[in-house]
Amino acid sequence: MNRNSSISLITLFLCFVSLPIFGKTSAVEKEDNSIVQIKSTVQYPNFAEPWRYKHPETRTSYGVVIGENLVLTTAQTVYYQTNIEIQKFGSLKNFSANIVKLDPDLGLAILKVGDSEFSSGLKAVSFPSEVFLPSSGLVIEYQEYRNLSEKKIRSIKLDIDQYTNGYVELPYLEVQSDEKMDGIGELVVEEASRIPQGILIQFKDSSHSGKLIPSFTIKRFIESTEKNAFSYKGFRYRSLVDKTSREFYGVKKEDQGIIVAEIYPGTPASKLLKLEDVIVEAGGYKIDPKGYFDHPKYGKISLAYLFHSGDDLGFKSGKKIPLKIIRAKKMVQVQMELAPFPESAVKIPYGNTRYRIPNYIMLGGIVFQELTEHFLMEQGNQWRARSNKELLYLNDYHRIQKEESEEKVLLLSHVFPIPGNQAYHSLRQLILKSVNSEKVKNLADLQRIVSANQKDFLVLETEDGTQIVFGKEELGKLNEEAMKIFRIAKSTNL
């Protein structure tokens, strides 16, 4: 099965997989045999040279058994996997596994082992719908020679962030420990009761601190049969802390709130909210000038919790959340549906790669692709200093669509130097504007225009006014020449 087919299958599973739900949460003992080790061979695409893949590498993480032949692990371990093997305590056998569910914002994946022998002797872990805070816990690790060990850890507070470089802010527990941790999917249980508290996904030995995905968020991910388990608020906001600004927007002394600074197209927020609306209350909870509300159990936490993970407060994806807003100095009340993050709202993909493969089209030996932050990051640790400043600006300030659109930033990224395109050898990192005077929205649109072209010539024009001209009949020949000389398998991977 080829790589694209594998990713399509994952998408299919994301939409339709129905995973067993395990009932009453019980304590996890060290001898329960619930922890396994994951070894994944991964091969990342090259986002700057999308016709190539990088060298394979091996990644390891811990896995938690959550059902018959089902294992929970970190998504980063299995991104772009070509092979996944699982080792369990007490067995020398390596078991092959496949991805059946993955959430790039949460940073977790569920694997399924095909071998029925795998589940023998293993006990499934069930995650509860609440956590203990503050609390002392134990980190269960799978060590070399298939031994298990436990280390002490402290859960300090609950917060919310885009902790996997995802698009959606989700809850995490801030944890501390004096011991060394890997932060690669270890199960954490409460020390006294040994009830599961979550999965450790980050830990820095230098600061003795890390981040733990809480059990209630994991439970939601496991039990959801939807492609997207979590909803998204659909807007960005800024603080409203100074008295003059509050007076300007008509905020009364007894109210506070934040101001809507950006609205994502294609979201329920785009139909109900307006820029410079002041949200003073969400879900019946007053919002302070920095965007926090008082959670009845966890204390002050960002309002994003209500929209993204407010199950415990009655705000599940698909339901509506009441909002009180001040618009033009008048109080307005609306009911906003909670819906998933709209991927179509992203004009320039950023953050984690979300398991995407970069697409490209070659025309006359010239490569075109859509701009992503990952393309810029291929320039190394100093990518911000090395990047084309115009592209960097677009990535920083225009990554989100202004209105519902399929438009992307189309880039001339590479020229394979052959005699037939000699006039264009110096071109690089130019934004494509049009083909035969027709505006190009995205890579698929470029392919459509080229395929449908009935003219003798193909004229490609970039934003800076540069024109690239090819005869219709020579495009294929130049592509074949470039592919042969530079050993490129395909002229496009669309």
UniProtKB/TrEMBL annotation:
Pfam families: PDZ_3. One of its GO terms (biological process) is proteolysis. Keywords: Hydrolase, Protease, Serine protease, Signal. This is PDZ domain-containing protein. SUPFAM superfamilies: PDZ domain-like, Trypsin-like serine proteases. Residues 356-491 form the Protease Do-like PDZ domain. The keyword Hydrolase applies. It comes from Leptospira idonii. GO terms for molecular function: serine-type endopeptidase activity.
